[in-house]
Specification:
The complex is a heterodimer of chains A (about 120) and B (about 110). Chain A has strands at about 5, 10-15, 20-25, 30-35, 45-50, 55, 65-70, 75-80, 90-95, 105, 110-115. Chain A has about 120 residues and is mostly beta strands. In chain A, the strands form 2 sheets. In chain A, strands 2, 4, 5, 6, 9, 10 and 11 form a 7-stranded mixed sheet that branches. In chain A, strands 1-3-8-7 form a 4-stranded antiparallel sheet, with no helix packed on it. Chain B has about 110 residues and is mainly beta. The chains are: A mainly beta (about 120), B mainly beta (about 110). The interface of A and B includes residues 48 and 106 of A.
Chain lengths: ~120, ~110
């Protein structure tokens, strides 16, 4: 079990730039989730995939955010025209999904985004 | 939308003392999960509760799901320094998991 891996671990960029993060889930997991976490808060749901289909996206998610999981394996999260408020830890998690019940999620170490 | 609230936000205990964190949902949940996040780490799954009134134990940790499936608690007996971290509950109803803000536990040796 190699776990969930995320790349890069840290990203520093100037306001207005685009950034892309990658997540490689546990290989047999069909569900993949993206969260955002800021200091003193719990993970905030952004979106999730079952295989290659994006099944749900948070209503709080700006149009500047987009995620893909083209072959049902790794996923990318892109933020366009970054803003100061985008500074956060972006966490990816994966799980085995069956039906509507949530299964235990395995988290990666996250990508810490800092906007200058 | 669904909200999950946790109290207390912080708890400082002397090693050997007990600790409890409480989780309340604004809506009835289909299940609740608990996670632990060490400082500088990522959330790690601890347990999932599904049935009304369910109680599960893991060594010194006792997890409970309320009869109405709207609240839950985590109790740690005789805390140790290895218990330090933030404990999150996460509830699922008709939406993907909604995490509480967590309870940050500090243990003084």
């Amino acid at each position: 079990d190699t776990g969930v891996s995320q790349d890069p671990r840290h990203k520093i960029t100037k306001r207005g730039q685009n950034v892309t993060f990658r997540c490689d889930p546990i290989s047999e997991h069909n569900r993949l989730y993206w969260y955002r976490q800021t200091l003193g808060q719990g993970p905030e749901f952004l979106t999730y995939f079952q295989n290659e289909a994006q099944l749900e996206k948070s209503r709080l998610l700006s149009d500047r955010f987009s995620a893909e999981r083209p072959k049902g394996s790794f996923s990318t999260l892109e933020i366009q025209r970054t803003e100061q408020g985008d500074s956060a830890m972006y966490l990816c998690a994966s799980s085995l999904g069956a039906g509507s019940r949530d299964q235990p999620q395995h988290f990666g170490d996250g990508t810490r985004l800092s906007i200058l | 939308g669904q909200q999950v609230m946790q109290i207390p936000q912080y708890q400082h205990v002397q090693e050997g003392e007990d600790f409890t964190t409480y989780c309340n949902s604004s809506t009835t949940l289909s299940n609740i999960q608990w996670y632990k996040q060490r400082p500088g780490g990522h959330p790690v799954f601890l347990i999932q509760l599904v049935k009304s009134g369910e109680v599960k134990k893991q060594k010194r940790l006792t997890f409970q799901f309320g009869e109405a499936k709207k609240n839950s608690s985590l109790h740690i007996t005789a805390t140790q320094t290895t218990d330090v971290g933030t404990y999150f509950c996460a509830g699922s109803g008709n939406t993907p998991l909604v995490f509480g803000k967590g309870t940050r536990l500090s243990v003084i040796a």
